[in-house]
């Protein structure tokens, strides 16, 4: 009797044991419903085959344990297949009409409830799953107890309590066995779910580590990690380039002082040792290989213990920023000097005008043989006054009044004056004006000054048979003015400084003419470009943005 009972228990737990051995990898998850359906179907058939009837006429088998497990975890197709197996096995045991009617009533009540519970089981929590299992087990136990009492209609009153106790005992064993099977199946699912979560977390961790490593290696900062003893444990690509030709293996496990020495770092103290001693953030501007670096050295804290696990050294190249800062300071000083110079030169014009007036008066009263001397003085005073005028025009950042004008009309107005200058030099003016020229917002006085300066520079660069070509072009977004000469040209090394104030390539030049031209062009939302080839000539190309267009 006990051997047969143990056999029934082993058959009931057979699907779960096989499932826990088989379900070892996440890749098998998709096959779980089919696997449980098969092993539970085999267990149902074995339970019917080795069913045991006790002395109290109790049918002792656990056929319903694999049936409940298989229908809950095998899905709808698996549940239908197990129901067919279950019905086929049960119909063989039905011999009386009362048993058939009772079984038919059970089928009509239980199976609709079963399909409803199967749909809700997958998305339920652990507590609700237990309630569903208890409910289904109770229905199955009631059906088996009803069969048991239906078959024992000739029992005496003294036998009834014994049969009731036997039925309750069977129900408890059945409920316990089903609960354990469901628990072990859920345990298998949780184990695989933990594997999946661990795999996902590991992948995310490796991905974050890889991205962090790529960020550290490719960042334009010097990054050096040191351990708690001050030895280098990692350097990024930027730091490795600074200690070239040494490689990564030559620096790792060396003290930070060795890295600083190879980097030629000029620092007052060793920042890593400073942090190791004080356990505080340390910042310093150091120089290394002719460049300036803003460095931050800070401790790497341990996550849980709160101690120091190492030191992080970060350096940011601020050479360009430092140079820009110095340039801004220099420009501020130059601006102050320029303002003072503009104020002084403005005041100089007044006594110069008085001097010129008295020189003219003396010239009229002097003998003829001395008038040439006074003429030289007056010419030099006029030349000095012209320099002052150009300097004041360059120094003043004034707002000019502009109006819509046609560049071709302005060029035609200047043509007689340009021809007059060219005739004095024995040169030719070649004017090529574009057709249907759009209007520009410009100040005519400044624009004439721009054209005259560029034209006279071109004339001065040519010999007495040179040709000066002036062109206007109507482009899509801009209007271009081209002034081209066939003179001596400009050397490439001089082109970069061409528009700097007081820089000149002429023997008697002041270096203010082109600087003034650049100032006028910028006030008219334009750009100026120079193309020159020594011995063949120079072209000044001025581009003005048309109104309402975004050119630059």
TrEMBL record:
GO terms for molecular function: ATP binding; phosphorelay sensor kinase activity. It is an enzyme of class 2 (transferase). The keyword Cell wall biogenesis/degradation does not apply. CDD domains: HATPase, HisKA. The chain crosses the membrane at residues 7-25, 31-53, 65-88, 100-120, 132-149, 161-185. The keyword Iron-sulfur does not apply. It catalyses: ATP + protein L-histidine = ADP + protein N-phospho-L-histidine. Residues 343-544 form the Histidine kinase domain. Keywords: ATP-binding, Kinase, Membrane, Nucleotide-binding, Phosphoprotein, Transferase, Transmembrane, Transmembrane helix, Two-component regulatory system. Gene3D superfamilies: 1.10.287.130, Histidine kinase-like ATPase, C-terminal domain, PAS domain. Its EC number is 2.7.13.3. PANTHER family: C4-DICARBOXYLATE TRANSPORT SENSOR PROTEIN DCTB, SENSOR HISTIDINE KINASE. This is histidine kinase. It comes from Cohnella endophytica.
């Amino acid at each position: 009797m006990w051997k047969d009972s143990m056999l029934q228990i082993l058959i009931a737990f057979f699907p779960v044991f096989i499932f826990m051995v088989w379900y070892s990898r996440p890749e098998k998850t998709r096959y779980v419903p089919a696997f449980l359906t098969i092993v539970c179907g085999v267990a149902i058939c074995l339970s019917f085959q080795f069913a045991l009837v006790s002395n109290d006429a109790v049918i002792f088998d656990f056929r319903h344990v694999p049936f409940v497990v298989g229908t809950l975890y095998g899905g709808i197709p698996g549940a239908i297949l197990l129901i067919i197996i279950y019905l086929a096995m049960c119909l063989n045991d039905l011999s009386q009409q009362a048993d058939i009617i009772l079984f038919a009533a059970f089928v009509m009540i239980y199976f609709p409830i079963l399909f409803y519970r199967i749909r809700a089981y997958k998305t339920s929590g652990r507590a609700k799953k237990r309630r569903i299992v208890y409910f289904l087990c109770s229905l199955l136990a009631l059906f088996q107890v009803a069969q048991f009492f239906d078959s024992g209609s000739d029992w005496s009153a003294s036998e009834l309590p014994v049969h009731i106790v036997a039925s309750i005992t069977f129900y408890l064993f059945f409920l316990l066995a089903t609960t354990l099977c469901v628990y072990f199946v859920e345990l298998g699912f949780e184990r695989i779910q933990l594997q999946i979560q661990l795999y996902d977390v590991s992948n995310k961790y490796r991905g974050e580590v890889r991205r962090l490593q790529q960020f550290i290696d490719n960042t334009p900062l010097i990054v050096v990690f040191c351990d708690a003893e001050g030895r280098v444990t990692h350097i990024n690509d930027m730091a490795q380039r600074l200690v070239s030709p040494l490689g990564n293996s030559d620096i790792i496990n060396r003290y930070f002082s060795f890295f600083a020495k190879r980097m030629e770092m000029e620092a007052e103290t060793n920042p890593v040792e400073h942090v190791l001693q004080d356990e505080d953030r340390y910042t310093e501007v150091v120089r290394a290989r002719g460049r300036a670096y803003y460095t931050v050295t800070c401790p790497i804290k341990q996550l849980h213990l709160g101690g120091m696990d190492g030191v992080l050294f970060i350096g940011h190249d601020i050479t360009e920023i430092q140079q820009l800062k110095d340039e801004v300071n220099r420009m501020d000083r130059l601006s102050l000097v320029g303002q003072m110079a503009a104020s002084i030169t403005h005041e100089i014009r007044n006594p110069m005008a008085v001097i010129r007036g008295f020189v003219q008066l003396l010239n009229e009263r002097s003998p003829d043989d001395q008038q040439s001397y006074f003429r030289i003085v007056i010419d030099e005073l006029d030349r000095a006054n012209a320099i002052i005028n150009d300097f004041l025009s360059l120094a003043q950042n004034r707002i000019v009044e502009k109006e819509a004008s046609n560049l071709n009309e302005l060029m035609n107005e200047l043509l007689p004056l340009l021809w007059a200058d060219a005739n004095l030099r024995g040169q030719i003016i070649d004017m090529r004006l574009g057709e249907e020229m759009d209007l520009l917002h410009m100040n005519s006085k400044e624009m004439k000054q721009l054209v005259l300066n560029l034209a006279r520079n071109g004339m001065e660069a040519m010999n007495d048979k040179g040709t000066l070509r002036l062109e206007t072009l109507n482009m899509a977004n801009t209007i271009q003015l081209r002034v081209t000469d066939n003179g001596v040209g400009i050397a490439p090394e001089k082109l970069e400084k061409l528009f700097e104030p007081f820089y000149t390539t002429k023997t008697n030049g002041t270096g203010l003419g082109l600087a003034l031209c650049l100032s006028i062009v910028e006030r008219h939302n334009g750009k100026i470009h120079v193309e020159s080839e020594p011995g063949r000539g120079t072209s000044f190309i001025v581009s003005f943005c048309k109104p309402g267009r975004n050119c630059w």
